[in-house]
Write a structure and sequence with these properties.
- This protein is an alpha+beta fold and 325 residues long.
- The protein folds into two domains: 6-181, Ribosomal Protein S5, domain 2, CATH 3.30.230; 187-312, GHMP kinase, C-terminal domain (Alpha-Beta Plaits).
- It has nine helices and twelve strands.
- The protein has helices spanning 79-91, 114-129, 136-151, 157-164, 198-208, 213-235, 239-256, 261-272, 298-306; strands at 6-18, 28-45, 49-54, 59-65, 97-104, 167-171, 176-179, 187-191, 277-281, 288-292, 310-312, 322-324.
- Strand 3 and strand 4 (59-65) form a beta hairpin.
- The radius of gyration is 20 Å and the shape is globular.
- It starts with 5 loop residues before the first strand and ends with a strand.
- It binds (R)-mevalonate.
Length: 325
């Protein structure tokens, strides 16, 4: 009787600091993990089914046999969990059914990477419950494969943030994943209230630069350069410099056509109120913006952002995936 073997793990959400879009094409980015977490409880069953409860994404009472994992229509909210389990099952064939219950501390609307965080939770929980002893890199690789199986596109930076936590210098596909030894960042986060889809935006950028590929390459190289400068500035705690680089990054993102009026207005309000710098964070088209603020200007910057959108309270540099006791 295998029942009652259960484990709960949690993984953090993420915020892109600098380097979005360029990182999809072989360039670096800087990403920080945020303290709003995704949780997954995994239990072994004495049947051969996947049972999934993911109320946050409106998946309740979802059930299918392990042999059917990845087959047929999969509800949007179940995709990442099911394909993660399929990838585990392909590599480490399961001998019993699995019940997975996910719960998020943050809305999947924010663009904090709820799909990647839930994927990482499932892989880590399965590693623990089956005693697979997967390393962080193995958890990253299996989770990133899952994301690519579903989305076809993406750099994996969000998966890395969920696995490793902290603040990372990251290059496409995990070619480099380097923790940056920095303290919590004085970062303020504003939510635009507009939901954006990453793959749509990646495709939009590509389509709008048809015939101007050289300029697109220049933009990506420019972004890569400022990410490398920002890494040095972060490590020497030169926040004025980081702020300048964020503004330059935002100018490139506007040229890519991924900013929207509401984000621009929130960014402008933050800078007017005294932020070191501000930019959108993630794919653009909506979701969130970030501002780096001197402590004494913090309330003014919050008020500025709130006059257009809504600030979200998050701490950066959060711990990576972990088992919850
Ligand atoms: C989306 O949050 C950031 C992108 O760079 C996509 C990715 O890196 O996977 C646009």
């Amino acid at each position: 009787m295998l029942q009652n073997k259960r484990i709960t793990v949690s993984a953090p959400g993420k915020l892109m600091l600098l380097g979005e879009h360029a990182v999809v094409y072989g360039h670096p980015c800087l990403v920080t993990a945020v303290d709003q977490r995704m949780r997954a409880t995994v239990e072994l069953l004495d049947n051969l089914n996947l049972e999934l409860e993911a109320e946050d994404v409106k998946v309740m009472g979802y059930k299918k046999t392990l042999s059917q994992l990845g087959v047929g229509d999969i509800p949007k909210g179940a995709k990442f969990v099911e394909i993660a389990l399929k990838n585990i099952n392909d590599k480490y064939p399961l001998k019993s059914g699995i019940k997975i219950t996910t719960k998020s501390e943050f809305s999947s609307q924010f663009g904090f990477g709820s799909s990647s965080a839930s994927t990482v939770c499932v892989v880590k929980a399965m590693s623990e419950i089956l005693n697979l002893n997967l390393s962080n890199k193995e958890i990253f690789d299996l989770s990133f494969k899952t994301v690519l199986d579903i989305q076809g596109k993406g750099s994996g930076f969000d998966v890395a943030a969920a696995v490793y936590g902290g603040t990372l210098y990251f290059v496409t596909g995990g070619e480099i994943i380097k923790p940056l030894n920095i303290n919590s960042l004085p970062l303020l986060v504003g939510y635009s209230g507009v939901k954006a889809d990453t793959v749509t935006l990646i495709n939009k950028v590509k389509a709008s630069f048809v015939g101007r590929e050289k300029r697109l390459e220049e933009i990506y190289s420019g972004i890569a350069m400022l990410v490398n400068d920002a890494k040095i500035a972060f490590l020497s705690n030169d926040l004025t410099k980081v702020g300048e680089l964020m503004d330059k990054n935002q100018a490139y993102l506007r040229e890519l056509g991924v900013s929207i009026d509401k984000l621009d207005c929130m960014i402008e309000a933050a800078i007017k109120a005294g932020a070191y710098g501000a930019k959108l964070s993630g794919a653009g088209g909506g979701d969130c913006m970030i501002a780096l603020s001197p402590e004494e200007k913090k309330q003014a910057v919050i008020n500025g952002i709130n006059s257009v959108g809504e600030t979200i309270n998050v701490r950066t540099n959060a711990e990576g995936v972990r088992v919850e006791l």
